[in-house]
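I hope you will forgive my troubling you with a question about protein structure. I am sending you one protein, given as its amino acid sequence and as whole-number tokens for its backbone shapes. Thank you for your consideration; the sequence and its tokens are set out here:
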Amino acid sequence: MSWLAICGEGQRWVCPDRFGQSAAPQEDLLAEGCLMLETRLSGEGRPQTLLQYERKAPWPGSISIRAVPDGGIVLVLEQGKDRFHTTLQSPPDTRTDVLRITFNWDSRARHGRITLERPEGDHPVAQDTPPPPPLLAEDLYSIVHRPALREIDRDVVFFAASDRQQPVGPMPALSARVPVATPFGDRPVAQLICGDTVCTRDHGVVPVLHRVNRTVPALGSFRPIRLRAPYFGLTQDVVVAPHQRLVITGTDVEYIFGREAVLVPAQSLVNGFAAHHVDSPLLLTYHQLLLPRHEPALIAGAQMESLYIGRLRRDRAALGRSLLADCPSGLLPEHARAGLKVLGSFEANTLAQARAA
């Protein structure tokens, strides 16, 4: 079991295996798990109560996540007479971005960690917390299905909770059936394993060092996007996460942007013709390949970024909290960014329209 509750973008869901048709028993405690909240923070720097929940029985308790004017995120949990409080200071340049707040806890180990990350970024901000209390499973059910007991800010994209700690750091972005070019023809990314080889445009055939996958709520920065053929060299439609980036080359790129190649995030292409959001199950599994030099892989005729991990292998703690925790250390490379310009939505649409003309 993993995800227990999801609320946002018109969706309200609790895990039927855990809750059935009603809330869990009032005394059912979660000693370990994760709270995740994705939100846009006020560009004006005003304080925001992102999530506030209170209950009276079986004992008084509350959950509060607030953004304060100096850029900090404040998390407060109350269980009877026990009060847990932690603050994470966010960099000031993140105020107007979409941010993901992840709170992992293990009450038995007396350990918690709160993380703030940009969905498209490479450097999460994190810190350990005081020993956290366990949470009542019923609270998660109530946040989803009992709106009178909670307040959620209008800028919150979604809230989700799990009974397992969730990884942070490099994230996969390809749906399971996305075709990756190999020396033996296209294969779905979900079928590739360590030791397989894939084709790249500039580096030839390279080995797959590792494949990561993660099941996430298909909302917010995880909401899937369909990239449509024949735009940007695609030979067929593919479904990817919003942060998946394409490497685009050509004479029109040189003419418009003065560069040999640029990066285009899938979310910047959503315009009704080159790309659009698609309906999907509420929980969706994404995959991604780890390659030796962060080479773009050939996917359905286009170049798409593989998993970028920078110097993650040098930080054992961060590595252990990531999806690469189980990857043999001898297979972990160090990646350098290519330094390509990343196009915004207006620039990406300009390029898409130029190619459609």
User: Anything to note?
Assistant: The longest strand covers residues 32-40.
